[in-house]
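USER: Write out one fold?

ASSISTANT:
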Amino acid sequence: MSDKKRVMLIMPHMVGGGAERVASLLMNSFAEKGCETEIVLTSDKKEDVVRCDLKDDTVLTLLPETMPPESAGEKRTYGIFLKAYAQITCNLFELFRLPVPADMAKASLYVQYHREIRWVREKLRREPDTAVIAFLQPAIPIVMLAARGLPNRVVFSERCDADRLMKKRYGRKFIEKYYRRADGAVFQSVYARDAYPAAVAGKGVVIFNPLKPGLPPPYKGERDKRVVTFCRISKQKNLPLLIAAFERFYRKHPEYTLEIIGDSPNEEGRQVEAEIGKQIAAAGLQDAVRLLPFCSDVHGKILSAAMYVNSSDFEGMSNAMLEAMAIGLPCVCTDCPAGGARTAIKNEENGLLVPMNDPDALFAAMNRLAEDPAFSLKLSQNAAEFREELMLDKISEKWMKLL
């Protein structure tokens, strides 16, 4: 038996998203601190995994390729009776916009994930000293049910908009009853923490996302006439809002360009990319707006830009925003749920916050940065001071105290 502390992180996917990168960076740091580490993915198959940030020290277990196949008895039980019960009863509550009772939600969860719950429970029973991090839906409720009555220390971290989560099937009622199993919780903002029931929120601390190692130092020279954003292309990012605000900005400042840097990893992303392509063409901005693929040296490419703009409808804690601040870019961000931007940005001190879905406010903020170089420089310098707080070693130490 090894004397090393064991840390296991359980989450659904590893397909290159921001939350998955945070998980990878944390596990890399735990391994460097001498822990035995393992990531368990509840949904991914081998061909789905993007492991670019995760070092080889961490074992990666894929449940779809590890769990035994479903037996005929399970298919009959979970495929007919319980499925009908869970779907019909839960759907009725959802139809009338009523919170789904905790035990109905639990039954629905077992219908979908009974094999995953059983696998995780058996593994934790074999490894009672392993500390568990439950990351993202549906991994968190899976772990909460699997770990009941077992001695493992369990910490969960939800990265989505908590207000939205509370209204879902595995929302407030389920959380009030079954998240009590958690020994600790990590939230990305006080606003996300306070959206949870008091008994759960009281176990939580706010910890920022760590910065990716190797970011370039803050830029101090004359800035290019570029507005930049970098993100996964999706509806969440509300890129049409950014383009609408830039259209007005461009009429006043035709020397500027807009660079949208990111990939479209799925059908939703490809649809968004097609839609914004039409929007750009309709506005006659083909020469001013560039859609560029994501690249490994993205931070070096945007370092000297005039400003970074985030137009999202919701974010947990945007890694792109934190990285832009850390390299000294003047930042404009929508003040969206779950309060990540509001937590990191002190408005008019180290960045600018604007209301959601308000192209006029977004234009005004961009225009202010373009026309007031001294103010822009102040935001840049103050944002860069935030960098030290976000270093990976400091962030991982806060996690280790919980574990």
Observations:
- The chain has a mean pLDDT of 92.
- The chain has two domains: 6-68+96-206, 226-390.
- The domain at 226-390 is CATH 3.40.50.2000 (Rossmann fold).
